[in-house]
Design goal:
disordered N terminus; 435 residues; Aspartate Aminotransferase, domain 2; globular; alpha/beta; 4-stranded mixed β-sheet
């Protein structure tokens, strides 16, 4: 039977083939973790092949803010694909890209006026780093070609992005000598609602004082450090960091890939601090989880400086840059987001996460519980056995994907209180059993 006929004749997912041939993220092919076959996703639910429904607490790695199979987003995809799914962006342009760029410029701080589209969050970070380095090359300061960042950060899995991830929990030891060595300061110790002291800034200040002639830019996740540890820190740290960057003539890059589009209770996390970077990366929730797309925004000063030097243009251009299909659904997603009181929605989710996860602080195996916007984190003293814990969550009827010592929730914004209550109760019940 031809392969196409075989595929059409059966709706059963071949898990044996998956086990032997598919390489899932952060897994071993010789000892793969169990995977759960999804046959349908709608609203906030993932429906497994065996008929079980799971409440999704992860928004598919924080992207599906409006859940799954949303009528508005489906219509945007269908309408666009009937016109054109993709055309190259080199020498051509199209309405979805122009419309989306207008929306991004309207939503972000006024000084961010240039938009460069790319395929994924990691690539948007690569683009930001290239922009920073090329900016200084254009000014004849070629020694300013390294990055300064803080520990416990995560910026992606491609090479330049890897180089600014945490040097201990990241992949620096595996690729030593291959990825560029960057400068790392201590992670902000001041928690979100705490004041930021001179001690909190001492290390980053020292790094800038000693190495500013080598540093092209500081890159940081504003307010929330995501996959590097799910840490929340004081917005005042960013205010002081902006001042330091200006003082030492260093660019500032904000990675808003995880925090952008309402997740922290502000449209962008930078709004907690009221300051603006020179370059900003966005992704994940940009398309509502429908397609991969990211963007790097810069000020006019950065863009014009780059293009004033040799070779007079920015040296980057992905094949699927600004693909119309992704731009169209992203535009519809942003229109949907601003069409309702999303801030009230996120505050409701924040209250539900605080209430639902509070009892975890009573457990001896828990070191911290923290909530900000639609992000809830339970940090344990010891790492989890992923295979065991994942099955426990599935058996509870929820989809939660812990990592390391962290059990966390980033639910879709459309989640109702009842579903959120089931999610948080499952977290509490399972964490309690691991004492």
């Amino acid at each position: 039977m031809p392969l196409t006929a075989m595929a059409m004749s059966s709706h059963t997912i071949d898990l044996d083939f998956d086990r032997h041939h598919l390489w899932h993220p952060y897994t071993s092919v010789s000892n793969p973790l169990p995977v759960y076959p999804v046959c349908r996703a709608y609203d906030v639910f993932l429906e497994l092949e065996d008929g079980r429904k799971l409440i999704d607490g992860m928004s598919s790695w924080w992207a599906a803010i409006h859940g799954y199979n949303h009528t508005v987003l489906n219509e945007a995809i269908v309408s666009q694909i009937q016109r054109m799914s993709h055309v190259m962006f080199g020498g051509l342009t199209h309405e979805p890209a122009v419309n989306l760029a207008k929306q991004l410029i309207a939503l972000t701080p006024q000084s961010l006026q240039k938009v460069f589209f790319s395929d994924s969050g990691s690539v948007s970070v690569e683009v930001a780093i290239k922009m920073a380095v090329q900016y200084w090359v254009a000014l004849g300061k070629t020694s300013k070609n390294r990055l300064l960042t803080v520990r416990s950060g995560y910026h992606g899995d491609t090479f330049a992005a890897m180089s600014v991830c945490d040097p201990e929990t990241g992949m620096h030891s595996l690729f030593k000598g291959v990825i560029q060595e960057q400068f790392f300061a201590a992670a902000p110790a001041c928690r979100f609602h705490e004041p930021c002291t001179e001690r909190d800034l001492a290390d980053v200040c020292l790094m800038l004082e000693q190495h500013h002639m080598e540093i092209a830019a500081v890159i940081i996740e504003p307010v929330v450090q995501g996959a590097g540890g799910m840490r929340f820190y004081a917005p005042e740290y960013l205010v002081r960091l902006r001042e330091l960057c200006d003082c030492y003539d260093v660019l500032l890059i904000f990675d808003e890939i995880a925090t952008g589009f309402g997740r922290t209770g502000k449209m962008f996390a930078l709004e907690h601090a009221g300051i603006v970077p020179d370059i900003m990366c966005v992704g994940k929730a940009l398309t509502g989880g429908y397609m991969t797309l990211a963007a790097t925004l810069s000020t006019d000063r950065v863009a014009e400086t780059i293009c004033s030097g040799n070779p007079g243009l920015f040296m980057h251009g992905p094949t699927f840059m600004a693909t119309p299909l992704a731009c169209a659904v992203a535009s519809a997603n942003l229109n949907l987001l601003v069409s309702y009181d999303w801030q009230k929605t996120v505050l409701r989710l924040e209250a539900g996460l605080r209430q639902g996860l509070a009892s975890c602080m009573e457990f001896t195996n828990v070191s911290d519980v923290r909530v900000l916007g639609a992000i809830g984190v339970v940090e344990l003293h010891r790492p989890l056995d992923m295979a065991v814990v994942q099955k426990k969550f599935v058996d509870k009827g929820v989809w939660v994907r812990p990592f390391g010592r962290l059990v966390y929730l980033m639910p879709p914004f459309i989640m109702h209180d009842e579903e959120l209550g089931i999610l948080t109760a499952a977290v509490c019940d399972i964490v309690k059993t691991m004492q």
